[in-house]
Structure formats: C-alpha cells, structure tokens
Hints:
Blueprint: H1 7-41, E1 66-71, E2 76-81, E3 84-90, E4 103-111, E5 121-124, E6 131-134, E7 152-153, H2 156-163, E8 171-175, H3 191-202, H4 216-228, H5 239-252, H6 254-259
Parallel strand pairs: 1-8, 6-7
Antiparallel strand pairs: 1-2, 2-3, 4-5, 4-8, 5-6
Amino acid sequence: xxxxxxxxxxxxxxSKALIMLIIILPIAMLESIxxxxxxxxxxxxxxxxxxxxxxxTYFVPSPKGYSVFVDLDNLVLILYENGTxxxxxxxxxxxxxxPSPTGSWTVTGISNWSEGFGGSWIALNVPWxxxxxxxxxxxxxxxxxxxxxxxxxxxxxxxxxxxxxxSIGVPVHIKYDNAPFRVLKDGKxxxxxxxxxxxxxxxxxxxxxxxxxxxxxxxxALCQFQTKEQIKADGIVGKLSWNLLHQRVAELGENYLSRxx
Length: 261
C-alpha cells in the first residue's frame, strides 16, 4: 500500500521531528555532563585490602541481608534478601568504549544527588574510577540498551526504591557475558584491563597490583609477552593477543591458578 503525503503533511512531520530533536539533544548532553562530573569530582574509591583474584566471577546471593545482581546481558537488576529474590527492575549499563565494571563490588556510599541522577546515587568500590547506580533523564533507554558512561542507570522511581534497601557494604555483582570486545591500549580503564593485568601477572610479565588502569607498566609487560609470542609488540591488545593470553593462562592448569589467586 502506497501512502502519498501532500506538502502540508510533510511540513508538519518535519516540524514535529525538529521539535523532538531540540528537546532530546539537551537532555542527552545533560546526562553525559552529569556522569562526567562523577568521574572528575567525586572522591576516589577505597583501595582493596586483599588480592581479589579474577574479578569476573560468578554470583552467589548473600545468605544474610541484601545483595544485588546486575545482569547487563538481560538488562535487569535483581535484589535478593537472605538469598531469595524479592524485586527486580530494568537497567542499562555502559557502552562498548565505556563499559560498566563487571565483577563483585560493595556499596561504599548512598546519597541524594542532582536531578540528572534522579536524586539518587549508590556508589561502588571500583578501583579505577567512580562508578555507581543512579537515575537518569533518559528513561526510555533503561532496559533497552547499554549506553551509559559505565554507571548503572535505572528509572528514577526504581532507584529511589532500591536505595531504601541499601547500606554500606551491601554486595553488588555486575555481569556482562556478551560484552563486545574492545581493543585495549595505554589510557584505557576497566574490568578487561584488570583481567589483562591479572593474566600478565600469572604469566610472570607483570608484577604490579592490578588496578584496571592501562599505564606504562602494563604496556611494558604486554610488549614482553608479545615479543615472547613472536607477534607484533605494539603494546595494544587486539583479539590475537587477547586469545593468546587466555590460552597461555589455561595452559598453566587449574592447580596453579588456584594457588596464585
């Protein structure tokens, strides 16, 4: 069926589209600015008191008290009480180039924040930046796609309800099994960088404390690994280097890994 529009109808449609664009763009810019404020002005998280080993672990609800499971594959946050699921809400996480911190964390701060965060902020102890759970001025994206700068976004009413159950020390596990692969190089931060440092450490190339920040020492260790493997030693992790790292770590054997985590 062919639909024929006259000039007046076309003009009306274009006018409405322009109005929507004028409304949406400033809102999207506000969201970006707000998350930028988090990463520049909020306090650094507390450092870890112990070696956490691989952070990409599986989730087990706490048998006592509350615990939170964020599943970015299914875009849902699940709240548990004494090991039993009691509530769930839709969420959105980080984009490919600014991924959310996968792994096991704890709540380190709870506060009321600006309207750009829906009035709620739940901070997590991620060592390479300021990450948390908050509201959004883009509720239409929640539960539909991962587009944030790394924080977990919820609808304002939902995060306000979640905040009522939160206290310092509540465990929060973030999972994203199908996260898109991204190339790692100097300046990158994230769970994948943390895992890179862990693997280089297990293989004897990196002797620093993994912190999820790709800097000079990580670069040097990676170049040494690449040279040993007789591949281009450019200090950049593409799929070839990533797969070789996983292969070499697997070759160490489970007994070795359990002793060195």
